[in-house]
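Progress against Task 2.4 (sequence-to-structure conversion) is shown through the following example record, which the project officer requested during the mid-term review.
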Amino acid sequence: MRGYNPKEWLQVIFFIQKSDTLIKLGPFLVIIFIYSLGIAWLEMDYLKIGENSWVQNIPIMHSLLSFVISMLLVFRTNTAYDRWWEGRKLWGQLVNNSRNLALKLAGILDNSDEESRKFFRRTIPIYAFSLKEHLQSKVTLYMLDDKEDKYIKPEIDPEKHVPNQVAKLMFAKVNDLYISKKITGDQLIVLNLELMSFTDICGACERIKNTPIPYSYSSFIKKFILAYVVTLPLGYVFSLGYYAAPIVTFIFYVLASLELIAEEIEEPFGTDANDLPMGKLSSNIQKHVEELI
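Structure tokens generated for the chain above:
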């Protein structure tokens, strides 16, 4: 996710990056511009349609539909942002729960039990990194090739659901601590609640990732935008002349950009510029857990 200062207007307005919608829509903008010029030439110079033609009344349709398309795009953008913000809240919850688990383990475990401390010092950050790579459909290899890590590597199968396997290891370790009388039953319940929250967060992230916006809704908006823009120059040529070409192109840029932005942020677990910084959040979890345990 790109960080920026929203108060620096000049940098925000004039800086163009690779993910900017202007670059993505470049070819389409050229096509719309040429198409609008062609319509203007066809109506004014070739067909010589007079001002009394019914064609000049087409803008009335656009005036009626402008409210509809604005409502659709507002709803589309808000829905996409809700998904992005929910993903951010879930990862913020993962950070807090990881800290809470590390704090409780630091207070519960005996200072001489270095083996258990090392286990949780490594597995808690591994869960965050494995969840990141799981959501990005990658094979989780983070910290699993360390030869000294005899407690984790033999029991992880990268081809299966890695976050579940890491959570299983932590559950098993806590249960072993209870059986060996290193923690009490009340402490087991406290730790169990923290560990359960990890799987709850994973499931909620998977729900966002695996449940996209309904295809029919997304498809309808794209078709609506295209039909709206393609018919714009038919009527506006009579009042704007050849200037209708740049104006129609700009209108298409605004409408299509809103749809592109919504597409990018509705799945916040990818690698786009505006997606969540899961790698940075995972690194912060690792840093804080190592400080606490």
